[in-house]
Specification:
Elements: H1 5-10, H2 23-31, H3 40-47, E1 53-56, E2 61-68, E3 81-85, H4 104-110, E4 114-118, E5 128-129, H5 147-166, E6 171-176, H6 178-189, E7 197-203, H7 215-221, H8 224-233, E8 238-239, H9 245-249, H10 257-268, H11 278-282, E9 289-290, H12 291-303, H13 313-320, E10 337-341, H14 350-359, E11 363-368, H15 378-381, H16 385-402
Parallel strand pairs: 3-4, 3-6, 6-7, 7-10, 10-11
Antiparallel strand pairs: 1-2, 2-4, 2-5, 8-9
Family: Belongs to the AB hydrolase superfamily. Lipase family.
Keywords: Glycoprotein, Hydrolase, Lipid degradation, Lipid metabolism, Signal
Pfam families: Abhydrolase_1 (PF00561)
């Protein structure tokens, strides 16, 4: 049995804890006949959340950064820092909800690391700004960002804050999916940050989609030019956000129903998932994002290039000095890179990851999960993920430390 409240006790608190994003849904589920098959302990864990550090970006976003300063039985002291950053529609909870002994955040703390977990702007934990209101209908400027801004502004704010608190000059970075995308953005646009990393552990980092065979991705990509405009007109600039998306949209007749069924089937109807963890996962996922993040990936798919966000010709000229958005210069991403992937990943095709590996100038290791059915979400929630992937990640971090 685990308790996420262990994390509350372990962290250095700068603010009070609060409930998980989909706690109302979990409570309703527990009252239903289906909920009777889940234990009370799991139910409680699904409703728990963590304490926070507040970090302010240079463009005014107030982000939540969570910390596990040391492992069980350890005492505070000097130890390497590691920053974990989540994927699209996710949060720091991804690295904690499987509990001590299983979740990557806890395993790293027990392995001797000072663990920090970031929450990108716009997710449930980072919906604040010094002047902009994320819930305003009249002014929607809070939501005018993609993962370009996450890499350009959020990551430097996290990194500088962590190194100041930790007292060291380098840290490890672990990014899943969009967390890997934003790392590539940062170090191509601000290459001086490469010197701040002991290693980059990319867990299926999303960049190229040349071999993408995901029907949903390809369908959305066809509408990337009107996706944000339409969403803003419908007051839907926040996608799958702090509102209870599951109970509002994963219902019969909803345009999102097929998406929900596909996602849930892919996540849970397999032998490598513990079905009793369902309410815990759904208690924290999805955690929300800006519609522009989705549109930007759509642009990458349609243009067949990993490039900055395409506004329009005039805005591009003002922002980039060219009528079309420039590609990210990946030759500038010189931090030691360790790339991890699964052959059954339908979100980041392994062939596209291998393309990225051939372009980055300092790839130390490319690690394929031994299990051939390992997919995109197995990085977070598979029962065998420690043996299949996490042990290799820790070994890669140790390797990078020896080569400083």
């Amino acid at each position: 049995m685990f308790r996420l409240v262990i994390f509350v006790a372990a962290c250095v608190a700068l603010a009070a804890a609060r409930r998980s994003p989909n706690a109302d849904y979990v409570e309703d589920l527990m009252k239903s006949p289906e909920g009777s098959r889940f234990s009370d302990n799991i139910n409680e864990d699904a409703l728990l959340d963590v304490v926070i550090h507040n970090v302010v970006t240079s463009d005014g976003y107030i982000l939540e950064l969570h910390r596990i300063p040391h492992g069980r039985g350890d005492t505070p002291g000097d130890r390497p820092a590691v920053l974990l950053v989540h994927g699209l529609l996710s949060s720091s909870a991804d690295y904690l909800i499987m509990g001590p002994g299983n979740a990557l955040g806890y395993l790293l703390a027990d392995a001797g690391y000072d663990v920090w977990l970031g929450n990108a702007r716009g997710n449930y934990y980072s919906r604040q700004h010094i002047s902009l209101n994320p819930d305003s209908i009249l002014n929607k400027d809070f939501w005018r960002f993609s993962w370009d801004q996450i890499g350009l502004y959020d990551l430097p704010a996290f990194i500088d804050y962590i190194l100041k608190i930790n007292g060291q000059d380098k840290l490890h970075y672990i990014g899943h999916s969009q967390g890997g995308t934003s790392f590539l953005v940062l170090n191509s646009l601000r290459p001086e940050y490469n010197e701040k990393f002991i290693s980059f552990q990319g867990l299926a980092p999303a960049s190229f989609f040349d071999n993408n065979e995901n029907t949903m991705f390809n369908t959305l990509a066809n509408y990337e030019s009107i996706l944000e405009t339409t969403a803003f007109a419908l007051n839907a600039q926040e996608i799958f956000g702090s509102q209870d998306f599951i109970t509002r949209h994963c219902v019969e007749g909803s345009i999102f129903n097929n998406f929900c069924q596909s996602a849930l089937s892919g996540l849970f109807n397999r032998e490598y998932y513990n079905s009793t963890m369902l309410p815990v996962i759904l208690g924290h996922t999805p955690a929300g994002a800006a519609i522009r993040q989705v549109a930007h990936y759509g642009q990458v798919i349609r243009s067949n290039s990993f490039r900055r966000y395409n506004y329009n010709a005039l805005t591009n000229l003002r922002e980039y000095g060219s009528l079309t958005p420039p590609e990210y210069n990946l030759s500038l991403v010189t931090a030691p890179a360790y790339l991890h992937y699964g052959l059954a990943d339908r979100q980041v095709d392994y062939r596209d990851l291998l393309k990225l590996a051939n372009i980055l100038p300092n790839v130390v290791k490319v690690n394929q999960a031994e299990r051939e059915t390992f997919n995109h979400f197995d990085f977070l929630w598979a029962m065998d993920v420690k043996e299949v992937m996490y042990d290799d990640i820790v070994a890669s971090m140790r390797h990078a430390e020896l080569n400083l």
